[in-house]
Amino acid sequence: MSDFFRRRVFPNLGLKLLSLALAVGLWLVVARDPVAEVAVEVPIEFHNMPANLEISSENIPRLQIRLRGPQRLVRRLQASDVYADIDLNVLRPGERTFDLTSQQIHQPSGLEVVQVIPSQFHVAFDNRITRPVDIHPRVIGIPAAGYSIGTIMIEPSRITISGPEKHVNTIESAITDPVDVSGAMGRMSFNRHAYVSDPLVQVANPNPVHVTVMIEKAPAASSAH
Known about the structure:
Layout: H1 2-9, H2 13-32, E1 35-42, E2 44-47, E3 53-55, E4 63-70, H3 71-76, E5 83-87, E6 94-99, E7 105-106, E8 112-117, E9 120-136, E10 139-140, E11 147-155, E12 158-164, H4 165-168, E13 173-176, E14 179-180, E15 186-192, E16 194-195, E17 202-203, E18 209-217
Parallel strand pairs: 2-5, 9-13, 10-14
Antiparallel strand pairs: 1-4, 3-9, 4-8, 5-7, 6-9, 9-12, 11-18, 12-17, 13-16, 15-18
């Protein structure tokens, strides 16, 4: 027995005692650390979205994740440490309801997911398409007295839009930011951006367009004899 202690216990005895003291101290800290609970709001992360699909729902919910664990970990928790991961690898166009479980929530080690709100969410997906549409200039204001709005020219006259198929197909045209001709006379030129009202439809090349408005002398009214 003495040989066992001499060969197994006494070598590096100081380090072994220090390790034991640290382990006991850590256990005491953990044992005294009360359990706490916290709720964090996090976004949903969609992974492996097929290249030809887009989300056609305007509102994607944010999740409230309730977590429980040692108070020291809860106090250090940042919202960015928690996220929901949804895999869309085999997704097809249409509506889809997703069930959210703790297995789809990523959180720091030592914390437990106790509730996900909402536990389900509904999203629509559609094919992405691209097509050109005409641009209509939006002219406002009244020219100078005796003048009227004549020819309106726009360059380029069309832009390309893209987005979910059902949304893109409802867009008849794009429109420019206002072109104000109040008190104007003669030829007026403006650079304006063109846009579409649907937030899920994007302008492919959002460069300004050139709008030219001809303000012409209004013909004199003929007097009756």
